[in-house]
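User: I'm preparing a small set of examples for a lab meeting where we compare how different chains pack in three dimensions. I only have the primary sequence for this one, and I'd like the structure in token form so I can line it up with the others. Please keep the answer compact; I'll paste it straight into my notes.
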Amino acid sequence: MRVWRALLWKEGREELPKVLVGLGLCAVVVALRQNAEFNEEFARDFGAWITISILVCGGVLGMGLVAKESSKGTLSFLLGKPLSAEEVLLPKYVVGAVALLVLVAGAWGTVYVDLEGLASRGFSIYSGSGVWYPSVKRLAEEVGYVNMLLVSLTPGLIAYSVIFASSTVADHPLKGAALGTLLLIVLVPSADNVLKYFPALKPFFSFNPGISFRGTVVRIVEDPWGYLVRMGATAAVMAAGVAVSIALLRRFRGISIGWKPIVIGWLALIAFITAMDMTSGPRPPRPGPLSVLTPEEGAYLDLAVVGDRGYMATEGGLAVVDLRDPTKPELLAAVEEPQWSMSRVAVVDSLVYLLGRRKGLPADSLGIAVFSVGSPVRPVFKGYRIIGDDIEKFGGWDRCGEGLILSGRWGDKLGIVSFALDAEGLPARADELVVEELPEGYKDDFRGWWEHKLSMHVHNERIWVGYRDGFLAVDARNLGALQETVRVEMGDYNSEYDLHKSRPITREGDTLYVQRYWPGNLVAFDITDPNRPREIEYWFFSANNTIKIIDDWVYSAAENGLFVDRLTDYHAHEYMGYWQVPDELRSSSSISHNWKRLHLVRGHFYTLIGRSLMVFSPEQIKGGRP
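Assistant: Understood. Below is the structure token output for the 626-residue chain.
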């Protein structure tokens, strides 16, 4: 024990300058964060920078603990005392690991010492790629300092262990670093390939689980089993590193590797990567739409499908399309009503109901324009109804039984409004159901305009509504008396992290799929008894607003194409590819149209992207991985 204490004191004293330098740099960062411009950059990238710093610290600490003493002859002196390899190496390894822990604690201290300074990176920032940055302040608060430290420490400990083991056969720290880095470059992809056979484990082994990777750190922290797996695997790698170090020191005592094999190894790796790049053929082009129908002017804004007919809201009216030939959708008719600006479309029997605003007095009144399509090639304007000026924002618009249903916001309330049809087929407001009341002053908060939205899925006379805290079911058999039958709170980790500001919800058969905001899971509920939804499965999958699920295949519409994933066992999913939309057909304003629907007709998907109606063939994806 006395020997151990002496060796720990010796190693600690030698590593103390490195620790002090690292902590000094952390102090400098804290001081620089008082500058607003630096703090903004820090809040944007601190997750990636801390991860890189941890890996660098692990390498610096691991490469010199053994190699520097081997070069000075101190290692031979210690082993000749006599001390065993275990007695020499274990104190070194422990001191290095503790030093790394202290440095990581200091690194995250630069974040947690001033969480208020992270508040500027919230929902008020929207990136050019179409992604809302998560509220890093709330994330850091709710994950917690200790959890963030432990989860991010694991890759550093792995790098430290590998480089430490490599340094036992080196007589110079740089040799240990070069050999250890080479091994890491080879071993990490190999481990990733092994994890493909264990999909249940893969989500818990993210190399960078910090802020940069939305949701990963939360999944690890919230799942005790996953947390244990990550920490246990790290402990196993550390134990293996120590065991290999002891074995190497015993076997090659007094022998060190030269630069020649290390350089050959690096050259071989570079040659292998180069050869792989040169021999791999060009990626096959991604499939595009099977066919496209684009209006001469304006854009198609919403699509409803009944049988082989598609009915589209245009900016000023209605377009009717024949969908029988997916390779060539045929425009049957297009009519305009100059006094209207249309947005949504729904169809009940032979009547089409376009939701929009009627120009004039009262200014831009929200109303419903009705067209008769008894003859699809000759739509006739039948009339309209103004539905009131209290509905400030609207979202979903669909047929419900023999009437219509609208989701939207009026006053400080979010809810749904039903419309019954009179003998002439004209709609009249029948009932409304409040889903949630908005907080006081929400209009003064920029987030309120994006965050407070409902998503809606209508099946026959039952309506499923996704809202901020969960979802609910509404019995709409009597449109004049909407009845909430069940409400389910999802228990989100933090609902503010939703990328879309509404909770995606869809249905296939007796299964309801609902997005759990955080950490971004798609959750399946058995709704055989619709009044008692029962959670049966979830996947680590963040759904888009517009999705359709068919036999565990998830089709997600986006502004640049149609993405395809397959839900698999162990809560995992497999990316299958996507159909790519040509750049000239994309819309720069697609964020405002993320409510567009996806329809399956005769084995082909129909949706609106940019200005156009597009048709996609599932077989293009299922036949391979473009």
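A couple of notes for your slides: Residues 300-387 form one domain. Residues 476 and 482 are 5 Å apart (CA to CA).

User: Perfect, thanks.
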